[in-house]
């Protein structure tokens, strides 16, 4: 049995001052930690966003190069800003002094680091994992803002931070903690809101009014929220307001001594030094500002049945013991011996607040543990038997047997066949659909040769020895994070190398191989000077692109819908005058477009089982010697009439990649061909074509959407019904199985 390989990750902690990177193995940090300044406009950096992303990529590449004998499984970034679990910024003002809303940090890093899956989450969503051995607890960070998360050990293998689907929950700082205080403002809560916004906007009169009323305000414009009291900036403002409101008490304080009796000079360092010297004025301020936080922690503990709260954050730990003493005193005063807290012992009360010494390592260590936890389980999209929908299943990662290998999917394409399976147009029950992919080898059994961990590959889903044996048809397919395959798939040549940097468009290697096979077979019989492609879907566009690339003088494209023809023209797959409507007049339109000669090659790539009816309209449009390739739109039991009572059994013709000469009912000779999918040689040729002419062929323009695995059931259902995603026409939709949340990106 293969020995399980250690999970190796590069983890990153992006803070306002410094960015740190480290290596981690199986969820534990190693001694390899790199610390670099975070690019910021505060230090004169003109492009802090670009420089930060380049910095992370550069340092990650260096760490990877230091591991020549080990494979990096993942990159995880704990980001010091409000960011979704898909890595999209909601507000990064604390980093860059600008919100940068909508910036896709994860996508930008994936572009720079294509060799490993990239996960980006808020640092406070990652940090609780560092203390996972505590079981169930609150994690609160007190710095420039305040966030509170709940960690639940749950059942074995089900540990998690309790969060919403985008992982934004826990931004507790901007909730009002004393609503009755707003009644002190003349005009009530509405007037308090106006004053708070004005104060946050810099209005000195509004700030003076709130100071006089004893009401703290927050940068967000709220009055009396948790940040206004207990955050670092909030505490400094409260201390300054108290100094102005109580000048006599302030005058005799250590804090006044340290600030020259100027309330505007109070900062975090002065508060910490005064508190350390036992200053009574500072102690009173700390007691006041930590009281709402104590109440909030007690409420959450009672709500969720928790008996521990881990306190982190630069401000809380910077002020140190006096700050924690003030919080403990408030907890003791506010804890009621009732409900959840009934009968608590002195030891239990003392153990409620946890002040760990290593909170600086929590984002890095937590990110490492979070990635390792995800490595132990994986998600798949399952089609229940007889059901037309997809559901997300979570499974334990299985071991890799001696004659097995495991692939981690980077990308999986949703193709027309997958949609036909979902609609029930064909009777396949693959459990897990999908057959187009880019994947990375992550485990190799002892008896497997020719594969190495880290190798990037695609798959030929078709068993070349058995036409009824196909991944995503009768075998589990690629709509999964992890796919375990046996030695037979490798020995039959179904595993094909692709470049390490292969992006989502490389899922098209398999359909391109099928189109390339059809093109080669057809041009063996006719020159393909004048070509008609019937069908404007992805296959039709590929066939048209190949015909143009191979030097066809005229490439016509026909489709039922004008919008599809217009799209083909816009994407550059046919010229405006060569886009034709697919109707009963198609034959006449083809003759007109070819000066009466007709076309010498036709590729029928229609959907909805419309192939037979389509061919019937084309006989008059063919040249005297012509080829018709039955590429798509034909059920396995289709029978194609060809005149004089002759009938071609389409299924066997396509399965055998055979051909048959027939008399054209309109005069002349026609070779009818068919194939399904490609063989290894065609996939290899498609890879080389991708490398050399992929851009010229326009393959990158064929991927219109990238979706996360949890979003795929909804997206696939809409695709199957309407051919759209969120109401927009789609060509190839690609699943990125490692995108968290329900993400849908338009390319």
TrEMBL record:
Look up and give the organism this protein is from. Plantactinospora alkalitolerans
- Entry similarity comment: Belongs to the ROK (NagC/XylR) family.
One Pfam family cited in the UniProt record for this chain? ROK
List, alphabetically, the Gene3D superfamilies matched. Answer: 3.30.420.40, Medium-chain alcohol dehydrogenases, catalytic domain, NAD(P)-binding Rossmann-like Domain
Q: Does the keyword Oxidoreductase apply?
A: yes
Q: Needs which cofactor? A: Zn(2+)
What's the protein called, per UniProt? Answer: ROK family protein
- Can you give the residue ranges of the Alcohol dehydrogenase-like N-terminal domain? 403-486
Q: What is the lineage of its organism?
A: Bacteria, Bacillati, Actinomycetota, Actinomycetes, Micromonosporales
Q: Which UniProt keywords apply?
A: Oxidoreductase
InterPro entries listed in its UniProt record: ADH-like_N, ATPase_NBD, GroES-like_sf, NAD(P)-bd_dom_sf, ROK, Zn_alcohol_dh
């Amino acid at each position: 049995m293969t020995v399980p390989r250690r999970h190796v990750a590069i983890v990153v902690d992006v803070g306002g001052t410094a960015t740190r990177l480290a290596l981690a193995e199986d969820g534990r940090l190693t001694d390899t930690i790199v610390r670099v300044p975070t690019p910021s406009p505060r230090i004169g950096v003109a492009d802090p966003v670009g420089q930060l992303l380049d910095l992370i990529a550069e340092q990650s590449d260096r760490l990877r190069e230091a591991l020549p004998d080990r494979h990096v499984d993942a990159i995880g970034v704990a980001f010091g800003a409000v960011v979704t679990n898909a890595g999209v910024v909601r507000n990064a003002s604390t980093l860059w002094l600008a919100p940068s809303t909508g910036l896709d940090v994860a996508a930008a890093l994936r572009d720079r680091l294509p060799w490993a899956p990239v996960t980006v989450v808020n640092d406070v969503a990652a940090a609780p994992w560092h203390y996972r051995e505590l079981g169930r607890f609150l994690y609160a960070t007190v710095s420039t803002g305040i966030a509170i998360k709940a960690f639940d050990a749950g059942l074995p293998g089900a540990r998690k931070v309790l969060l919403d689907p985008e992982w934004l929950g826990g931004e507790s700082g901007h909730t009002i903690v004393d609503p009755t205080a707003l009644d002190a403002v003349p005009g009530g809560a509405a007037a308090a809101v106006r004053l708070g916004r004005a104060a946050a906007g810099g209005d000195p009169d509004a700030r003076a009014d709130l100071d006089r009323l004893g009401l703290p305000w927050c940068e967000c414009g709220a009055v009396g929220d948790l940040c206004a009291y207990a955050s670092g900036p909030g505490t400094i403002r409260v201390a300054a307001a108290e100094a102005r409101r109580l000048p006599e008490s302030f005058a005799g304080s250590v804090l006044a001594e340290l600030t020259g009796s100027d309330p505007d000079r109070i900062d975090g360092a002065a508060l910490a030094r005064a508190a350390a010297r036992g200053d009574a004025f500072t102690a009173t301020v700390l007691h006041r500002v930590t009281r709402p936080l104590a109440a909030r922690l007690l409420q959450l503990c009672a709500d969720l049945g928790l008996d521990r709260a881990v306190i982190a954050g630069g401000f809380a730990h910077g002020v140190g013991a006096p700050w924690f003493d003030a919080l403990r005193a408030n907890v003791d005063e506010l804890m009621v011996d009732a409900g959840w807290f009934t009968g608590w012992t002195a030891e239990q009360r003392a153990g409620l607040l946890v002040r760990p010494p290593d909170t600086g390592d929590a984002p890095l260590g937590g990110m490492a543990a979070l990635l390792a936890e995800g490595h132990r389980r994986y998600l798949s999209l399952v089609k229940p038997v007889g059901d037309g929908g997809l559901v997300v299943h979570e499974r334990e990662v299985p071991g890799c047997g001696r004659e097995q290998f495991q692939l981690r999917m980077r990308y999986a394409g949703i193709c027309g066949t997958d949609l036909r399976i979902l609609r029930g147009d064909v009777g396949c029950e693959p459990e897990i659909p999908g057959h187009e992919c880019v994947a990375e080898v992550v485990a190799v059994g002892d008896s497997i040769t020719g594969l190495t961990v880290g190798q990037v590959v695609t798959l030929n889903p078709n068993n070349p020895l058995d036409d009824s044996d196909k991944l995503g048809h009768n075998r589990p397919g690629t709509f999964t994070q992890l796919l375990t395959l046996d030695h037979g798939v490798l020995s039959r040549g179904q595993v094909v190398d692709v470049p390490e940097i292969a992006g989502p468009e490389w899922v098209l290697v398999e359909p391109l191989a099928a189109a390339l096979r059809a093109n080669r077979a057809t041009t063996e019989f006719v020159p393909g000077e004048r070509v008609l492609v019937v069908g404007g879907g992805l296959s039709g566009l590929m066939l048209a692109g190949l015909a143009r690339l191979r030097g066809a003088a005229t490439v016509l494209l026909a489709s039922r819908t004008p919008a599809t023809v217009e799209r083909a023209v816009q994407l550059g797959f046919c010229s405006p005058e060569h886009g034709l409507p697919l109707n009963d007049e198609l034959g006449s339109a083809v003759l007109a477009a070819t000066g009466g000669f007709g076309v010498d090659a036709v590729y029928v790539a229609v959907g909805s089982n419309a192939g037979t009816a389509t061919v019937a309209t084309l006989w008059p449009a063919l040249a005297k010697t012509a080829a018709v390739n039955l590429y798509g739109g034909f059920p396995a039991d289709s029978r194609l009439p060809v005149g004089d009572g002759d009938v071609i059994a389409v299924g066997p013709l396509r399965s055998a990649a055979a051909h048959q000469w027939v008399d054209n009912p309109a005069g002349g000779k026609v070779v009818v061909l068919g194939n399904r999918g490609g063989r290894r040689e065609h996939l290899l040729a498609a890879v080389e074509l991708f490398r050399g002419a992929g851009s010229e062929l326009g393959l990158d323009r064929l991927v219109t959407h990238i979706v996360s695995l949890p979003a795929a059931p909804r997206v696939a259902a809409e695709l199957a019904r309407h051919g759209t995603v969120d109401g927009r026409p789609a060509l190839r939709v690609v699943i990125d199985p490692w995108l968290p949340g329900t993400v849908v990106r338009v390319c």
